[in-house]
């Protein structure tokens, strides 16, 4: 999501979230969960504060505060998290053509907590959307559930960052399909034949990855800024017998 600092309302700065070109779709978005991350710079020990996020509708003189989008009590970490699923779903249901506009308010922040709503992109508010799963267009012949029995195929394998305990520093995604290759290469579909042929040729055809794709990772860096990095060859897309 692209975050920009918008206009002000009653002296408070609004934040807007727009879809990037890569996320735009004529079919719309099916939002499963939405989380707003806001960086708070705490200037006192153990401050007690509550963040409130409200939707904002209209423009110019017609700008008005809408329903409560989410709330969260301040925590010790720099990045505060607010569940704004309901507001994001309503925004997506309207087509997400216009930006999602939010007003942030803070009870107990005055003089003790500063919210970073603008400045460098790595410190701006972030809206993390989890979309409902859709049927993926895949070449089913590559997958083990559709391949010939015992033949070389791609086995789907999901890595959950939450299960690994990495969700405290990885913002998105929550996990990914790494996948791996398994099975024998024709015509050696049984172990005995493959061993004999390997001894004769001093090598054996091996079911292995022949095509990969990258993984886009968003995470907190050492300075608590948000970093986006594309990691090459993280997802096995296709297996064959090279």
TrEMBL record:
Gene Ontology CC entries for this record: extracellular space
Domain of life, source organism: Eukaryota
Domain TGF-beta family profile residue range list: 137-242
Compartmental location: Secreted
Metal-binding keyword on record: no
Record GO terms (molecular function): cytokine activity; growth factor activity
InterPro entries hit by this protein: Cystine-knot_cytokine (IPR029034), TGF-b_C (IPR001839), TGF-beta-rel (IPR015615), TGFb_CS (IPR017948)
Keywords: Disulfide bond, Growth factor, Secreted
Sequence similarity: Belongs to the TGF-beta family.
Protein name per its UniProtKB record: Inhibin beta chain
Naturally occurring in which organism (per UniProt): Papilio machaon
């Amino acid at each position: 999501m692209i975050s920009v600092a918008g206009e002000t309302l009653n002296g408070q700065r609004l934040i807007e979230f727009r879809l990037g070109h890569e996320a735009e779709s004529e079919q719309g978005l099916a939002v499963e969960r939405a989380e707003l991350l806001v960086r708070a710079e705490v200037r006192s020990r153990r401050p007690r504060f509550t963040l409130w996020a409200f939707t904002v509708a209209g423009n110019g003189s017609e700008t008005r505060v809408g329903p409560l989008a989410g709330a969260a009590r301040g925590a010790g970490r720099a990045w505060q998290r607010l569940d704004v699923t309901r507001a994001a779903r309503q925004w997506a249901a309207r087509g997400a053509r216009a930006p999602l506009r939010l007003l942030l308010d803070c009870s107990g922040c005055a003089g003790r907590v500063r919210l970073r709503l603008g400045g460098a992109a790595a410190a701006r508010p972030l809206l993390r959307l989890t979309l409902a799963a859709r049927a993926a267009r895949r070449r089913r012949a590559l997958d083990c559930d559709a391949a010939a029995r015992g033949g070389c195929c791609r086995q789907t394998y999901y890595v959950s960052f939450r299960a690994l305990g990495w969700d405290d520093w990885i913002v998105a995604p929550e996990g990914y399909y790494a996948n791996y290759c398994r099975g024998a290469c024709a015509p050696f579909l049984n172990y005995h034949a493959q061993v004999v042929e390997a001894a004769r040729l001093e090598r054996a055809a091996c079911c292995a990855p022949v095509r990969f794709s990258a993984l886009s990772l968003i995470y907190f860096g050492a300075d608590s800024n948000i970093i986006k990095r594309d990691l090459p060859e993280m997802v096995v897309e296709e297996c064959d017998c090279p």
